Amino acid sequence: MAYDLEEQEKLDAMRAWWERYGTMCVVIAFVVAASVAGWRGWQWYQGHQASQAMGYYEALENAAAQDGDDAIVRIQAASQTLRDDFAKSGYTVRGALVAAEALRRHGELDAARAQLEWVIAKSGDAALIPLAHLRLAGIMLDQKQYDEALSQLENAPSSFAGLYADRRGDILFAQGKKEEARAAWNSALKSLGADPLAQIVQLKIDALGEA
Prior knowledge:
Layout lengths: L1 H63 L4 H17 L4 H16 L3 H15 L5 H14 L3 H6 L9 H14 L3 H15 L4 H14 L1
Helix pairs in contact: 1-2, 1-3, 2-3, 3-4, 4-5, 5-7, 7-8, 8-9
């Protein structure tokens, strides 16, 4: 009989505990389950977005490897979709750089310029923005917009110092400022060190000396 009484006391205690904390436990369990489901849903969404962005990036790369007006249309369409629908994806900024280079090769300088300007203004990718500035300066050089081109090369990151100085020399030379170009190329040589590009820069200096 003592055993039955002890068992009843335990049941009563459990019932009292449940009446006091049961609702809270159900709510906590629901919140945990919802959080797990939400997290898994978010992961699926992120993976789905990344997969779609990769598909457009690959389509852009394929189009960039081809020639003709149709290729230009597909390059611009794929890049536009990436920028509109997947602006935060790493594929988008890389796609804009690929598109810019392909469009430049096709002679579509204004379209190439728009791609690079988007990278600089909208991508927020600190690692690739300096490269976009460098390439944009090259396009502006082709367009003979020398002052604008030089403005893209200000505050060079240390890792781009040699490349920026080389491009600055190209622009100054195009302006007829040969001695300033020489100084820029000599600066590039110092920054490039053993980089193979240094040999090309040296050829520019040598040719300038013969001019």
